[in-house]
Amino acid sequence: MTKRKRRNDFALPQVAVLFLILLFGPALSPPPASANYFNDFYNGVEKFSGLPGEVNELKESYRQTLDELDRAKESAKAFEEQNAELVQQNRQLAETVNELKKQSDLKDAKARKFKTMLIAVILLVAGYFIGIRVLRFLMRRSNRRVRR
User: Fold this and answer.
1) How far apart are CA 43 and CA 37, in angstroms?
2) In the prediction, which pLDDT does 11 show?
3) CA distance to 86, 100, 102, 144, per residue, from 93 (Å)
4) pLDDT in tens, 9-50
5) What's the sign of the alpha-carbon dihedral 112, 118, 120, 122?
6) Would you give the DSSP letter of residue 30?
7) Where are the alpha helices (DSSP H) in 2-36?
8) pLDDT at position 27, please?
9) How far apart are CA 90 and CA 86, in angstroms?
10) What's the half-sphere exposure (Cβ side, CA atoms, 13 Å) at 30?
């Protein structure tokens, strides 16, 4: 009887472990592999059929980018031409300003020269009259001494 009891003592834990393995085994095992050829083929065909649309979208985007680049180049070229025209106008305006400054300097120089001449003429005329008066005064004075 002791042999039977020993077998029963070991049988209960073995049954419990076996029961736990059967209960939790499917949850712990990795998912089964599936070979779904039709779904894979369908998904591949679907992805492949969507590629031309994506390629067309990329081509359209590329074309729009090229158009924008061409417009930017044309705009830059127009700005360069306008800038060249403005530089030319600026050069002409600078030459005109220099001419006007030269003319203004000449006018100022002529005005100073005229003013200097006018003052010299006035001083000469005034000197002439004062000189004549002084000479007359001296001649009268000398004539008065001679008469006496």
Assistant:
1) 10
2) 72
3) 10, 10, 14, 75
4) 667 777 777 777 777 766 666 666 666 666 766 677 677 676
5) negative
6) P
7) 2-28
8) 67
9) 6
10) 3
